[in-house]
């Protein structure tokens, strides 16, 4: 058996369904044996993030770094980095993490920091992606896994999934269709990154 060397740390703020998809893929596909990788910890910036309980029920260690307890983004990011670094991560995965990170934080984790965004980047960076895609008359939408850089949602694109926009779609119905694909796309992209490390 391969020694586990590649720790994955996942940052969440909400439901954590992408986090759970990655944890479940890691278990099912035995990333521990095949890649020497494991999800070491899930970190939330919000105490009410539902993903914290989900991670615990999957047997993953959790940590809370509550951004409301810090006077500045820099101080919050420094505390967050302290927690993250205690796990010596090979890969830091943002999965519905709803805080803008400082350029210093992003630079520090450059090359091992990835995000999933619910649009086909470079289209619709930022918020309300599904409604904006519907309003623009797009016939397809999707999700993008990308490297994180200081400019929001602009890092190198690693993987994308496409879904149709159907007549009568609302932001909610489209988001649900995209999320199904996110749960397939993100574990696959994370596995490929770990494989190539
Ligand atoms: C996903 O749609 C993801 O693309 C976006 O936020 C949502 C997070 O969902 N960044 P979950 O917390 O993984 O369920």
In words, what does this structure look like?
It is a single chain. Helix 1 (17-28) crosses helix 7 and helix 6 (129-135) packs across helix 7. The longest helix is centred in the last third of the chain and has 25 residues, at 171-195. The protein has a single domain, classed as Rossmann fold (3-Layer(aba) Sandwich), CATH 3.40.50. 38% of the residues lie in helices and 23% in strands. It is α/β, with parallel strands linked by helices and 197 residues long. It has 7 helices and 7 strands, in the order βααβαβαβαβαββα. Strands 3-2-1-4-5-6-7 form a 7-stranded mixed sheet, sandwiched between helices. The chain has helices spanning 17-28, 31-34, 50-57, 73-85, 103-108, 129-135, 171-195; strands at residues 6-12, 37-44, 62-64, 89-94, 113-117, 140-147, 157-164. 5-O-phosphono-beta-D-ribofuranosylamine binds at residues 12, 14-19, 51, 95-96, 116-118, 143, 179, 182.
